[in-house]
Amino acid sequence: MDKKINVTIWNEFVHENTNEACKKMYPGGLHLAIAAGIACDDFDIKYATLNQDDEHGLSEDVLKNTDVLIWWGHCAHDKVKDEIVDRVMKHVWEGMGIICLHSAHMSKVFRRLNGTTGKLLWREANERERIWCSNPGHPIAKGLPESFSLPYEEMYGEPFQVAPDAQPIFISWFEGGNVFRSGLTLQRGNGRLFYFRPGHETFPTFYDANVRKVIQNAVYWCNPTYRAAYPKTHRPDADEPITKKEVDFGKAGIVQD
Asked: What is the CATH superfamily name and number for domain 5-114+181-222?
């Protein structure tokens, strides 16, 4: 590639400091494990966390220089400031890619970009999960087998409240019988969004080679092909002449000072 893809991995970094099982599974933080799994010569990876600073590590300058934002959150969705969510959304609309992992389905960022509640069924019972590729021709599925399994995962089940334009790439079956659309894409403005279900904080999911491959492929797919200020509502001049009509019905436009 002529230019490296600038990846920012955002992680709450709360469980790793409060939960011994998570700390043992992902010493140093989930963001380090995610980074190790997708690292390659094409990516320049940086990190941001919830309590890094007053802007959660997501300043205007950071986002302006981020091609793809990876988001992992779980227990502190409500702690993310609305103004930072607005800032992230603006950059997605302008073309920045975003990958939402696991419990990020309930993050403010995903729910607002998605446009629905993001709610689903769930059960934490150490279940085996088999992930089937339902769209093998999609770039995010490149190099992946027809299906692969994770021996331990938290179950997410249908119904999943996502936007009707979401395009599934992966579908999961769980040992307890539930199924779930576990990999979805959405287009929001100029930006691409990918949601991927696996990634519970106390299971070794982010060490799985296939999970890592999916996320790496998603970074390539979400990398902006076009990035510019998203069009704002304005009153343009007419491109063609407008003839004067015999009847004038009056105007009901916005009253301006």
From this structure: Class I glutamine amidotransferase (GATase) domain (3.40.50.880)
